[in-house]
Amino acid sequence: MTDHAPPRVYFDTNVFITAFETVGARSDHAWWLLEAIEASDLSGTTSELTLAELLVKPIESGADDLVDAYDAIIRPNTGFDVVPMARDVLVEAARLRARRRAIRLPDAIHVASAQQQHCTHFVSADRAIDLPEPMRLVPLGPHALSDILGDARS
Question: Taking 90 as the threshold, does the pLDDT of residue 117 lie above it?
């Protein structure tokens, strides 16, 4: 780690689904990002909305171990912030939707949460998400971590 703060990175819901519910290389790519938080190479952020989105299928299928895993990871801790679904986030989400009518409310809440935390990068498998400048969309894939760290060095 360098002398400056690690990049602030927002994690969309699909990053956690990929890490926990898929196998193979795509899962590895998501885990590399989550492990970079533990190593203090990244400062991670997500919204409480992420937990609500993550829990639907595991609750529906009775996968209590997955419910517990998601509940454990979507908690504030060292290097990882969870933005509350507070009024200021919801108002900013409404502003985003007013300017970009095509953005869905859940995506607007994620983007507003990322803005509130001054995230420089937004990791998502959703390549169509519309982000305000200067936040950068980083597609979830094999180069996501190196792209974020490369941006931080330049």
Answer: yes
The reply to whether the predicted model has a pTM over 0.85 is yes
CATH match of 8-153 with 3.40.50.1010: yes
Expressed in angstroms, the distance from the first to the final Cα of the chain is 15
Token digits for 74? 């979507």
Determine contact, residues 8/40, Cβ cutoff 8 Å.
Answer: no
Helices 64-73 and 13-21: crossing angle, nearest 10°?
Answer: 130
Closest CA to 113 of 53, 57, 153, 59: 53
pLDDT in tens, 38-52: 999 999 999 999 999
DSSP for the chain reads --SSPPPEEEE-HHHHHHHHH--SHHHHHHHHHHHHHHTTS-EEEEEHHHHHHHHHHHHHHT-HHHHHHHHHHSS-BTTEEEE---HHHHHHHHHHHHH-TTS-HHHHHHHHHHHHTT-SEEEES-TT----TT-EEEESSTTHHHHHHHHHH-
